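Here is one chain, start to finish.
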Amino acid sequence: MIYRSKAPLRIGLAGGGTDVSPYSDLYGGAILNATLSLYAHATIEPLKGKQIILASIDRDEEETFEWNKKLPVNGKMELLKGVYNRIQNDHGVPGGFRLSSFLDAPPGSGLGTSSTLVVAVLGAFAEMLRLPFGEYDMAHYAYDIERKDLGLAGGKQDQYAATFGGVNYMEFYADDKVVVNPLRIKQQHLFELENNLLLYYTSTSRHSAEIIQKQSRNVEDKKVDSIEAMHQLKEQAQRMKDALLTGKLNEIGEILDFGFRQKRKMAEGITNPLLEDIYETARKAGATGGKISGAGGGGFMIFYCPANSKFKVIKSLEKFGGQHRNYQFVEHGLITWTVD
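Its structure:
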């Protein structure tokens, strides 16, 4: 038997950063995101012996271990090891196996790759061990492994987006409480959003944990400008939800632009001269707004390009050496299956 899974990556449309503690614990957070036809993939192949082989195909990394109840977390393929260690501790993995993973987008690109990979690997183990996880169970388990077991800084939205899929308005509260509200958007509005929303990879990456740690410290230190920016981003998520549900797509660029200007104030490193130049170039070419995906600092950006301005925007960004990526919105979250 071979056990496979895939979980979709996501773009955050509004409210980014308000899912991060301690802000979400103190004030409550809100985010609107949507999953894409780009995935984190995982495959588990049981072996006759007692070896454990881990392979990150897109990063060309592989390690082999003798079977052990705990694998050393040493900075290499730590997400795969973290999931195995937790599953082994809680449920038991009796024999050897080869675990392979692959991402459709570069790590550190702002589409939630790390958390989505954790969800995909968890899904493969759940398929193999027949673990009865519901969506909330799976997402919270993934969050627990990444944030608590591995001590990696970050928010909560990515695990829930990868598990539930679709377009969701998510609310975040103290004690890790999360409420996922799926949005019933008319098909023609979703198609128009997909047509007008340009996904652009800046060909740079960043360590999101460093930016998120600065953001968290700003809340702990009660920095007024940073906290007020997060309040405004939470309001942005509500505005984006209303615009999508009522079909007022002409407002989306303005709402994105509002968020871009607020997000700058959250923490140092979210933006930089290159990203500012890319943003202003896209705006001059016809985009009415946009944002840096994820924590900021690099990776993907999105731009809302009404009418047929998308093609002019793509042309204007060629000088930066990045590339646009084709995608579709997808309604499904994590999918797992078994191959005989």
